[in-house]
Amino acid sequence: MKKIFLPFLLLVFTLSSCQYDKAKITIQNKVHNATLEQVSWDKHSVASSLLPGETSKTCTVYESTQYHFPKTSVVKFYMKREGNQVYLETKYSFTLDADDNLLIVISDTTQVVNPAMRSEE
């Protein structure tokens, strides 16, 4: 019994000493006649596919206090329309801080870049 109790106690102590902050992010597709696929922010997948007018489920981002908020990143996605698909990233970054509930709207006027085209310049 003592052999089991000591490792269990160590595990509980280790897990309780880790502190995490969290924040929430949601992305909405307001691009007319285009589907957004493989939508991500930073290293977090937010949605696999968003039809026009659709909003993703809320993605909760957890960061240990060691690698703390705020986090800043662009939104990355594939835009699909009439059988054509292109990889895009938002031109500007979005910042997420601890306890935020960030809504990012991708619309017809959102400035985006294609990294493949940028490298050719």
Task: Note down, in words, how this protein is organized.
By secondary structure, this protein is an alpha+beta fold. It has helices at residues 2-17, 115-120, and strands spanning 20-30, 35-41, 44-50, 59-64, 71-73, 75-81, 84-90, 94-96, 101-107, 112-113. It has one domain (19-120). It is built from 2 helices and 10 strands, in the order αββββββββββα. A 5-stranded antiparallel beta sheet has the order 3-2-6-7-10. Strands 4-1-9 form a 3-stranded mixed beta sheet, with no helix packed on it. Strands 5-8 form a two-stranded antiparallel ribbon. The radius of gyration is 19 Å and the shape is elongated.
Name a few traits of the molecule.
121 residues; alpha+beta; five-stranded antiparallel beta sheet; three-stranded mixed beta sheet; 2 helices
